[in-house]
Amino acid sequence: MITVRVPAKVNVQLGVGGLRADGFHDLANVFFAVALADEVTATPGEGVTLSCTGPDAASVPLDATNLAARAARLLAAHHGLADPGVHLHIAKAIPVAGGMAGGSADGAAALVACDALWGLDTPLETLLELAAELGSDVPFALLGGVALGRGRGEILEPLPVAGPFHWVFAVADGGLSTPAVFRECDRLREEAGTGSSDREVPTPDADPALLAALADGDPVALAAALANDLQAAALSLRPALADTLRAGTGAGALAALVSGSGPTCAFLTKDAESAAAVAEALIASGTCRTAHATHGPVPGAAVLAG
Ligand SMILES: C[C@](O)(CO)[C@H](O)COP(=O)(O)OP(=O)(O)OC[C@H]1O[C@@H](n2ccc(N)nc2=O)[C@H](O)[C@@H]1O
Ligand SMILES: Nc1ncnc2c1ncn2[C@@H]1O[C@H](COP(=O)(O)OP(=O)(O)OP(=O)(O)O)[C@@H](O)[C@H]1O
């Protein structure tokens, strides 16, 4: 039996370029791994089967579309295993369709867990390539820490970071579809007259002030540099998120932003004590389903000892 812990992410900078011919957008995507984590346990089985527990378990598909099942099959096919056998149990803490890459995290965890269970010893470089086939956010879940993602987010460069930073995540009722949020971003750009294609929108780059704040471990400077080009689109589709963001800053967070494609909202705080107070205030505000205080950066998908 192999158990892998895998972190959620928040995008501390999400610069979104124009729509490419292949349907993706070029990004300057600064990923940050946080301690809110799923655990995926692989045990020997027949075929690829799944189970899931946790508050959002009812929203997790247990068929072949689940990213953990797709990852297991992809790894088996890569090694020419005709008859892969594994049962994957997902202990789910990461909000589903929340903009924290929960499905992607489970995909990455399943790659690592099956690799260990089946004794394959696949090089990290190959796991990263398989991860990119599964989705744009999956390679980062293997690496963890803090990294700049270029291309559609899959071309990763680890970044220097001094931590920890303290965060609160406010979980919304219901999810948002990632493709729908990118489409809304394009629609808002068209409406504003700037155009939305990759010929019209400049390719984004990482903000030097943000990179310096991460390297210095300076939460006040990081708060000033947080930026998400998908935030306007998420707020357009879910206007009530503005109340959640206000509730967190009103309770003393240094800054608030939508996490990735949303609807989870992220709050950076000055220390762990402040994070606990902001989480409590958010729950009391009634503007979210629940809120979690956590920290980061933390490592990527890794086998738990024992
Ligand atoms: C919003 C983020 O979570 C930020 O990290 C990611 O960009 C989304 O990554 P993901 O969920 O792994 O997305 P994928 O499964 O690769 O793609 C789902 C859909 O999102 C849109 N998509 C995704 C990534 C990207 N760079 N441009 C896009 O336009 C496309 O419509 C794509 O068909
Ligand atoms: N292991 C999984 N866990 C959760 N959802 C999954 C999983 N596998 C597939 N899905 C499907 O993917 C959809 C998006 O879920 P996910 O939790 O990955 O969204 P997300 O966190 O917003 O993604 P991202 O931040 O990468 O854009 C779900 O609604 C579900 O149908």
UniProtKB/TrEMBL annotation:
Its EC number is 2.7.1.148. It comes from Kitasatospora camelliae. Catalyzes the phosphorylation of the position 2 hydroxy group of 4-diphosphocytidyl-2C-methyl-D-erythritol. This is 4-diphosphocytidyl-2-C-methyl-D-erythritol kinase. GO terms for biological process: isopentenyl diphosphate biosynthetic process, methylerythritol 4-phosphate pathway; terpenoid biosynthetic process. The active site is at K9, D137. HAMAP family: IspE. Keywords: ATP-binding, Isoprene biosynthesis, Kinase, Nucleotide-binding, Transferase.
